[in-house]
Structure formats: structure tokens, C-alpha cells
Task: structure prediction
Amino acid sequence: MQTANKINYIGGLKSGVPIAMGYFAVSFTLGIAARKVGMTAFQATLMSFTNSTSAGEFAALSTIAAGASYLEMAVMQFVINLRYMLMSCALSQKIDHSFSVIHRFLMGFGVTDEIFGVSISVNGKLNPYYTYGAMSLAIPAWSLGTMFGVLMGSVLPSNVVSALSIALYGMFLAIIIPPARDNLILTILVPVSMAISYAFSKLPYLKDISAGTKVIILTVLIAGAAAVLFPIKEDDTDAE
Result:
């Protein structure tokens, strides 16, 4: 078992490299935003280490800048990050049941869009140590990027800072393309999801829904339709 855990951890580390690179670049801009609202490097780094959510943290900084109440902050964070509950539920069904419940809590702490993406795409049952490997690089990179953003944000030219955000899209491509090449259904679902997401941002009424709620609705609709239309048959070894 220890050998299997080690192999999975190393595999998670490899998958976490592009995630960490993207996180560092994106969180750099987060650090700049944190500096603008008066946060110190320590405060911003602690925020990123304990949260690891770009949308949630950017929203939190906007709330702080607006002088909103703690209640408003809590409600906003609940709505924006509610999608992680859906991701955690999906991972709980995929995790190897020989592992204790403590592993579910540890994995839940590190669930992000990207870490969920690489974890859920693992063939067969998921060994938690794979997710731990990805978390080991991604979370420190997100935290360090935030710290350097606070410390160096005022030094770099504005066009360089804006260019760093492009790394986020490269990170998503690095996660999506490899499994899509081997799965025709996934290859079709990716552009379909993008098209529906774009429609949600343009159609009346739908475009006014918050970003976090849109993600939840789209996740349920698209994943639910895919599960019904293209069910994955479990191997006999996985069903035991």
C-alpha cells in the first residue's frame, strides 16, 4: 500500500506542475489587488493559503474595499464557492473506499477547479495521495504568488502584470487537452460546455446571475446530461 501511495503521490506532483505555474501567475495579480485594499504580505499570503479560490478571494477583496459587513462577505463566499461542494461529492464517489474519512476532509481542503479536474480524470478509483501530490505544489504556489504580488506589484509595469493572467488559460488547456485526446465524449463536451457558458453570459436574465451560481447551474446541467446520455460502466474490480 505504501508503494502505491508513493506512486500516486509522485503522479499527483507531476500533474500539479502546470497547475502550480498557472496559480503562481494568477495569484500574483491577486496579491496586487490585496495590496490596493491595504493588506500586508502576511495577511494576503495567509488568506490564499487557507482559501485557494481565485473567484472567492477576488470577491472578498472587492467586499473589503466596499466596506461591506461580515454577513455580506459570508453569503457571497457561500454562493461563489458552493460549486466546490458538488466537486467534493463527485470525488467522494471516486475515492478508494479503503481509505478512512480523514482523507476526505484533507482532500476537501484542497479542492479547486484545477485539482478537481486532474483528480476526477484519474482512471479507476482515486488514491487520495494523488490529490495530495497536486495540492503539495498548487497550494504553496498560490500562496507564494500572492505574497510576491503584494511585495513586487508596484515595481512591475502594468502591461506585464496584465499579461500574467493569460497563464490561467494555459493552465486550463494543460488540464483539459490530455484526457480529451483519449476520450471522444470529453472532446465533444468541452466545446459544448464553452458554448453554453458563453450563452449564459449573453442571454437576458441569465447574464445577471452571479458567476458562482452560473458555475453551479452549468455543472449540474452538463454533468447530469452527460451522466444520463453517456454513463460510465464500472469495472467489476471497482464495483467491489
